[in-house]
Amino acid sequence: MTAKPHWFMQEVFLFRTIASQLWAVLLVPVGVYGLLLATQVDLLHPWRWIIGCLFKAMSPYNWGYVLLLWAAVVVAGTSHARHLTVSPKIPQTRLARLVQLLSPSSLVHAGMHVVMAMVMSYCAAALIGPQFSSLSLPCQGSDQNMGETVGPLHCLNEKSVFVVFSGAFLGLCYSLQYFLHCRHRLQFPLIQQAKFFRVRTLLPQLVVDSAYRVTRLLPAYYLGYYLLGHGVKTWMCALLQLNPSPVDISSVQGLLDVGLLWQTVFGGTFVFCLLDTSWMLLHIFHAQVFKFEVTSSLADQTDRYLSDAVQCSDVPLVQYLGFLDMSLLAQFSPQRRKHIFSLSQPGGHPYVWKTVSTSSLAVLDSLTNRLAACRQNIGVTGQRLSPDPSRVQGSQKAGAGGGQAPGNLEKVTQGLRRTPVLAYFLQQLPEAASAELFKDAQLVVWALEGLSHLVAASYTEDTYGVVQKSLPDILTAMMSLHEALDRHFKMPLAGSRPSHHARLSCQRDVSGQNTRFSLLPAATTALHHIVNVFGKHVESIPLSSEHKQKLRLFLPQKDATGVPRS
């Protein structure tokens, strides 16, 4: 029996996906106009240049190409939506990464992007000039010798073939970068902005990054075409029954054609811009805040509350949006906070607060336990980071049974691991274990922010005292996490912060590597926020002596005159 699709995926996710791709389609004519402006520059006659490109972009002759571009953008956007996730699987070894790239879904994604990029590249070439609009051209002298010529009278337009296959190469590279740099992971902005302002900010950088990536990839394509271009040309001539091209592009002289290079660069940039625009709009729309109902009297919508969203592990996107809504609610919405502190009817129980706080504490405790297991694993084995507690147990069992000889299968496995080829593929990837360890770092940050602000607001807004019973558990969980994070980042094997100066958008913090470094400041800020509001009253909260002593460190320090130090 198949599970019933979640209401969020059927309604909100579908609506946001369609809306994002409609905007991507509407931006295609703008991209076509920009392509014509860039490739037909006429600075001596600026008005004729600008108006002429505008009329050419709106010409009925080009409507067919625009329709093809619309279809390609929609297909690419649909593929992006199918792979969109907030918790991707992170391969730990090169072999696991290779298996991921060769999985059926990845191969389908690559095939679709190869085809779509070929279509986009062909349309871009045809829009720029008619010499690229066809794969065949009349052979030189065929009109004069028509009566004597036997066989096809057209030759292969190798320039058009070169441009179209450059699109296929760029589409394949785009798909590889998509998975290698974890671009299918949905990243939430630090500051929530309106969609228009985010697009206006990111779009110019997207164009620059697309051009930079194309210029880095084209040398490899030129080299490949120089080595394999003759075979491609022979295959195309046999397939289309055409004569060979009079100009051999696969030669050194043919590849030095500046006009062809100009066309390929701008066509490739146009292809990457369209694909990235569809990807960017999809992520912008799905990263927007969704306000869940805190309390409701509708009996048939019991799974649409905030309390259900924060514990919806079956649909991780819903859980992430639930914690984001809780964090913003706790900081900026006094009216909605009242519903958190209210008592549910009938029964008069703080159901909403209990569910929200329990789910938040579960997220904090989960990371604390993984950090403890990782630290224990490093202490036992002295190896690199490993978030898997089973490795710790395995190391302990191996130490306890050290007198037993390993089995034959284990000997064979260890011997195979020592071979250079297998060792290369089975070696753990840099930062992979750390990425797996902090895979839900964003959830932890939102849980810390939400809990701290709710607890601080309860000092004056909690009429029924529903938060007071949970204070010891909340403070204990926060201090335990703070201590675990502090110990972890002091270890030499904890990893280093990725560079902030990554040139390519696909190489920036798309995989969420930098989010882990905001965890310790978030935990410190959360504890300071609670202690500053409650003041010395926190000493009356029932905690262990060790935690009470650590909690005093977060109290404002005063100088000799009694003035708090800044």
Could you please describe the fold and organization of this structure?
34% of the residues are buried. The protein has a two-stranded antiparallel ribbon with strand order 1-2. Mean pLDDT is 82; it is low at 142-152, 389-405 and 500-509. The termini are far apart. It is mostly helical. Helix 7 runs parallel beside helix 10 (258-286). It is 63% helix and 1% strand. This is Nucleoporin NDC1. InterPro entries: Nucleoporin_prot_Ndc1/Nup. One of its GO terms (cellular component) is nuclear membrane. It is found in: Nucleus membrane; Nucleus, Nuclear pore complex. Keywords: Membrane, mRNA transport, Nuclear pore complex, Nucleus, Protein transport, Translocation, Transmembrane, Transmembrane helix, Transport.
Question: What topology emerges from the helices and strands here?
Answer:
Blueprint lengths: L6 H20 L1 H12 L6 H12 L5 H21 L10 H8 L2 H25 L7 E3 L15 E3 L1 H23 L14 H46 L11 H4 L2 H29 L19 H4 L6 H17 L1 H7 L10 H31 L7 H12 L7 H10 L2 H7 L5 H6 L3 H21 L9 H19 L29 H16 L10 H8 L14
Antiparallel strand pairs: 1-2
State the main characteristics.
566 residues; single chain; elongated; two-stranded antiparallel sheet; mainly alpha
Main sheet: which strands, in order across? 1-2
In total, the number of strands is 2
Helix and strand composition category: mainly alpha
Run of helices and strands:
HHHHHHEEHHHHHHHHHHHHHHHH
Helix tally equals 22
Question: Rg, please?
Answer: 30 Å
Query: Which whole number gives the mean pLDDT?
Result: 82
* Helical proportion, percent range: 55-70%
Form type:
elongated
Low-confidence stretches: 142-152, 389-405, 500-509
Alpha-carbon distance between the termini? 62 Å
Beta fraction: under 5%
How does the major sheet shape up? Answer: 2 strands, antiparallel
